[in-house]
Amino acid sequence: MLDVKGLTVAYGTLTAVRAVSLRVDEGEIVAVVGPNGAGKTTTLSAVAGLLKPRHGTIEFEGREIQGKAPEDIVRRGVALVPEGRHIFASLTVEENLLLGATSRIDRAGVRRSLDEQCARFPILADRLKQHAGYLSGGEQQQLAIARALMSSPRLLLLDEPSLGLAPRIVDDVFATITELRAGGLSVLLVEQNATRAVAMSDRAYVLGTGRVTRSGTPEQLGEGGGMAAAYLGLS
Length: 235
Ligand code: ATP
Prior knowledge:
This protein is of the alpha/beta class. 38% of the residues lie in helices and 26% in strands.
C-alpha cells in the first residue's frame, strides 16, 4: 500500500532522514520508533507532502506521491494526525472536524462521516458546538484522530499520539488505533513509547539518527531488553 524507498530529507544543510526505506501493507499497523531527533516526524511529514524529499520515492497504492501537495495526498487517501494535535482552540469541535473534510465535495458523504465520528467518539458528539480549546488533552487527541478520519482515508499517519497523555488515556488511544485497523484502515504509527507501539504493531522500524537501524515483527525485534537495546542503538 505504502512503499517508501531511499527517502532522504534535509533541512538546509542538515540531513534529517537518510535513505530510509519502509513499507505498509494493506491492513497493517506499522510502527516507527526511535529516540528524539531520529527523524520520525520528518519521515511522516514527507509522506504527507509537508516536506519535499531530496531523494527517494514514496508510492501509495502504486502511484508516486513524493513532492505532491498535501491536499492532493489527502485526496488520494492518506491522512496525517500531527504531533501536538494542532486543534484550533477557538473553533468548535464540529468546525475542527469539518476542516478534515475540506478535500471532499460530497456533502452527504461528509455528513455521514461526521455521524460516524460522533458514534465512534461520543465525547465529541456531546461537545460538537463547544470550543475545542475546552477539551482535555485526551479529548483533543480523539478530535485530532476524528478530524483526520473525516477525509475517509485508507492510510492513517499518526505522529506521537500518546505524547503528554495520562497512562489511562494512552490505553484508550492505543485501543482506538487497534479498532480502526479492525475496521480496515492501515496505520503508520510514529511513537517514542517504543515498547507499547511495537507490541501493538505488525511490523516496526527502529530509526536512529536518520537511518533505519532495525526492522521486523515484534517477535523479531524482541520484547523488553532486546527492544530497549535496539531503541538506544546498542544492537
Ligand atoms: P521528535 O520525537 O523529537 O519529534 P523525531 O524522531 O520526530 O524526534 P525529527 O523531528 O524528524 O525527529 O527531527 C530529525 C532531525 O531534524 C533533528 O536533528 C531535528 O533537530 C531536525 N529538524 C527537525 N525539524 C527541523 C526544522 N524545521 N528545521 C531544521 N531542523 C529540523
